[in-house]
Design a protein that fits this description.
Radius of gyration: 41 Å
Number of strands: 4
Organism: Sanghuangporus baumii
Largest sheet: 2 strands, antiparallel
Strand content: 5-15%
GO molecular function: double-stranded DNA binding; recombinase activator activity
Subcellular location: Nucleus
Keywords: Coiled coil, DNA recombination, Meiosis, Nucleus
Helix content: 55-70%
Family: Belongs to the HOP2 family.
Structural class: mainly alpha
Distance between the termini: 122 Å
Length: 245
């Protein structure tokens, strides 16, 4: 006669242990398990040794499938015994899946909009920052007014010929230096494996973007803007200093 489970014990009676193991494997259907996994997932209701014997016995009777991988043996419910899902149930599941996907899509859009709004709020100056910006603007206005005061009063003095000559000399000197540096920056370097590459790109492409930006900042590199291009096309650069007077 089968032994009775002790009062208060969580162990499954011997006759029901096999039923519990088989029921569990059919419940998880397509997942293979070892004896240790089954024992653990049954919360130890069936001892490990008994679980191994029960699984082997069920496999011998053809109620489950047994597969060996090296020294490890796995057990899985027979796929041929699995119940076919009716077409109407499949349609219902697909409809539910579509509904959930639509809900997820809507939620994703909501999260995206909320994130955009949050980023806008984070980039908005605080009251303290606005006050500081206002103070800076007032200081800039006052400084500009100081420069304009002599012009408005008619007390400003014109540049002397020597000062104009010095200004032209400085202009030629520093513009020439700038042109040289720009040529170096935009210089094409012949590469045997990839044609020609701009020197700066050849250097910066080997670095992560943050390091490339940091290097550019350390070297004092400033990219030409539309304003630079317009100045280069203007009479200021097209005419010699002596002819601009």
């Amino acid at each position: 006669m089968p032994g009775k489970a002790k009062e208060g014990s969580d162990k499954v009676p011997v006759l029901k242990a096999e039923e519990a193991v088989l029921k569990y494997l059919k419940k998880v259907m397509n997942r293979p398990f070892g004896a240790v996994d089954v024992c653990a997932n049954l919360k130890g209701a069936v001892p490990k040794t008994a679980t191994q014997k029960i699984l082997a016995g069920l496999a011998d009777k053809g109620e489950i499938t047994q597969k060996g991988y090296g020294k490890t043996t796995f057990f899985v419910a027979k796929q041929s015994d699995l119940e076919d899902v009716p077409a109407d149930k499949i349609a219902t599941i697909e409809a539910e899946l579509k509904t959930i996907e639509e809900e997820n899509k809507f939620l994703a859009e909501s999260v995206k909009k909320a994130t955009t709004e949050l980023n806008k709020l984070k980039s908005t100056p605080t009251d303290e920052e606005l006050e500081q910006q206002l103070e800076d603007a007032k200081a800039a206005v006052e400084k500009t007014l100081e420069y304009l005061a002599p012009l408005r009063a008619g007390t400003s003095s014109f540049l002397t010929d020597e000062e104009i000559a010095q200004s032209d000399s400085d202009w030629i000197k520093w513009r020439t230096e700038w042109v040289k540096r720009r040529k170096i920056f935009n210089k094409y370097v012949p590469l045997s494996w990839n044609g020609n590459r701009v020197l700066w790109l050849l250097i910066s492409d080997t670095l992560p973007p943050p390091q490339a930006n940091e290097l550019a900042e350390d070297l004092g590199i400033e990219y030409d803007t539309t304003e630079h291009s317009e100045i280069e096309k203007s009479p200021l650069c097209a005419t010699a200093p002596s002819k601009r007077r």
